[in-house]
Amino acid sequence: MGIYFLKQKKIAGGSSKLLQSLTIVLLSVFVLAAGGCGETVTDQTPILPGTPGTPMPDTGTPPPTGFPNLLSFHQHVASDGQVCTTACVIDASAGMTFQINIRYTDWQGVPLPNGLIQYQTTAPESLVKLLSNSSVTQIDGTASVTIQTGAQSSGTAEISITSANDPQAGVLRFFINLDSPNPPVLTVSMQMVGSSNLPSYNTNVYATANGQPSCATVHPDSFEQAIPTAVQGPLGMNNTAVFQTLPGTLPTEDRYYTVQVVGPASGAITATGCLDNVPIRDGVAQQVQIVVDDLPLKTVGVYNIDTYMDMVTGTKGNTSATYQLLTDLFNNPGELLVTSVCENAGGFLGTICGLLTNSNGLSPVGYIVAEYADQALLNLMADMLGQNTVFTGQSLTQLLSNIRFASTMVVSKEAVPTSQPGVYEYPKSSVAERWDRLGFYWQYDLNCPPNDANCGFYEVELTEVLGVYPQSSPNAGTIGTNLWIEDHDVPNFNYALILDYLIEKEVLPRVLGDGSNGLPVIDTFEKMVAVLFGGGACIDNNGSYLTCCANFSQTIGPHIPPIVAWAADPACQAAIGVGGAYLRNEIMKNGGNLSIGTPSEAPCPLIDIGFDRITDTIGMVGTHCQWDATFYMTDALFEPISSFWGERTQ
Question: Is 602 within 8 Å of 624 (Cβ atoms)?
């Protein structure tokens, strides 16, 4: 044990009896020089705790009662098992890291925060090293400093502790006795490179035979878990693990060990690091540093993915022109139909078109026909949507700018590390996606609450739209706690087919007739042209348009020249087929297969709601991830604004 000296403060006046009472309280063993009046000075050398026959607490002379502030050790127990107050002696080994904790209070024990505490030692760093020379007391009056013992195997170091601005608070003395026969065979420090906020960690050491168990074997996700040869923990993030000895070491040759760090020390492991083939020999101080990184979240499972896509904004070339045509179809259908039917008409229909159009567009007769069709559209909309509601080109844009696709992603194997630190990749074909449904909003007369994402939302199976469920198996992986999906083609996911289906099979019935009133369902462009000419009831049960064109001829005949009136019926029959095909072809000529992935600069966060290292959601319902999506149209690329999120279902 180290020896230290304390000097008793001078006491003026008073009786020897009072002095005895005071000093008995302050010292267990003392020599008192008696005197009636005047001053007495006493040098006292207390025997340190641990000395045989001295069952006193580890303390020197505390400041006399009445001193305003006091320093003391906080929750320290010396190597002899006694509680430390103003002095503390511990036995230690080389290569250890630990903390000295103190408490600063007033004389009544009330904590004093924001006090500057100083730490000093004259010992060489080969014996002990202070990682800081000062610290500040917290709200509970406590402060701490981290110290490390050096590689020197024996000696005594003293650390003095004072209040920088309050010298009368006293001096604490901390003694470290290093008396180890040999240096520790292994000292392990850790470097955290991941983002996990670990409160603690364990260090595991495995004796190996023929290289096993290896880091791969003892990995937290390995099915073949080995039992550690030695464990130290829980350790704080600034602490090192010191193994004085290890089973199986020899003084004459190296033995090899696998050294692993896992954290936190209890609960689900979220970070790890490991070194294979660490040579260890008795009498040789081996020091290693383990780089610790985040473990990827477990992602094996099935996820429902919702993709939100704006299929209008940013269209170019032919696709943009197609949208303008579809806008005109619902704003001014009559003029569009006359001009489109007559654009390349020949023969009999061409002769009639010569009477409906001229070099400036529509002729006066053509305008009569166009206005007739426009009014027919308004009448049909009134029947379906109500007298005060119309569906316009702007309505179509709003519908198509808020499309949703539902898909299923299946992850069958966990991602494995790559050569890039922190980057993991799924084994080939272990990620599969299937695009299941097309969704859109139709909210007429529903008075939907602004935050109700399901009000007026309709879905249809993609087999109805595309004939198949588009499927792919993209390359994917994780980086930290984020998912990346490599840009990949989605076969059979065709933009033109989706757009045509939405217009013909979903919009037209809702605007012109869905069969709910006993009339035919209007679900093709041909039927649309027919009812614009002949009225909503003109198509018979066999799908014949004869009545439509007869109605058209009879209704418009009195308002147009006789030659045109005479040809109205046959011209109508021809126009139905030509007009319907024209509109469909204008959509289908755009093509547009899909390629999609996550942006390289913005992988998607994986969310572990249960803090069990199992992915619960991919992104969040209120915080979507971004897609980098591209439709390869026939004449240009279309990169729609699109986002997604997903939720585990099993």
Answer: no
Judge residue 149's burial from the number of C-beta atoms within 10 Å of its C-beta, 0-12 exposed, 13-18 middle, 19 or more buried: buried
Domain residues of the chain, as ranges?
6-179, 186-294, 300-394+413-428+472-650
- Which residues have CB under 8 Å from 452's CB, separation 6+? none
Which residues of the chain register pLDDT less than 70? 1-67, 151-153, 180-181, 344-349, 351-352, 385-389
What average pLDDT is seen over the chain?
84
162 Cβ neighbours under 8 A, 6+ residues apart: 71, 117, 118, 120, 169, 170, 171, 172
Handedness of CA 601, 604, 606, 607 (dihedral sign): positive
Contact 525, 533 (CB under 8 A): no
The string of pLDDT tens digits covering residues 18-51 is 334 333 333 333 333 333 333 333 333 333 333 3
Q: What pLDDT shows up at residue 152?
A: 61
Residue 443: predicted pLDDT: 87
Query: Rounded to an integer, what distance in angstroms lies between the CA atom of residue 135 and that of residue 143?
Result: 6
pLDDT of 66: 54
**pLDDT on residue 189:** 92
Task: State the Rg of the chain over Cα.
Answer: 43
Q: In what order do the strands lie in the sheet with 286-294?
A: 230-235, 201-207, 255-263, 271-280, 286-294, 186-192, 241-243
pLDDT digit string, tens, across residues 415-427: 988 888 778 999 9
Helix (H) or strand (E) holding 576: helix 562-588
- Identify which of 454, 434, 455, 433 has the alpha carbon closest to the alpha carbon of residue 444: 455
DSSP state of 28: S
Helix (H) or strand (E) holding 173: strand 172-179
Residue in this structure with the two tokens 């035979």, named with its chain if needed: 209
Q: Give 209's DSSP letter.
A: B
DSSP letter at 617? Answer: E
For the chain, the residue count is: 650
| Peptide bond before residue 264 is cis, with ω within 30 degrees of 0 | yes
CB 543 within 8 A of CB 556: no
Minimal CA–CA distance to 179: which of 50, 32, 16? 50
If one counts every other C-beta atom within 10 angstroms of the C-beta of residue 361, the result is: 12
Give the relative orientation of helices 333-342 and 317-331 as an angle to the nearest 10 degrees: 120
Cα(386)–Cα(575) distance, integer angstroms: 29
378 three-state secondary structure: helix
H/E element, 399: helix 393-400
Q: Convert the pLDDT of each residue in 62-117 to its tens digit.
A: 444 556 899 999 988 887 878 898 899 988 877 778 889 999 999 889 999 999 99
What is the CATH class of 6-179? mainly beta
Q: What span, in angstroms and rounded, lies between the C-alpha atoms of 346 and 551?
A: 24
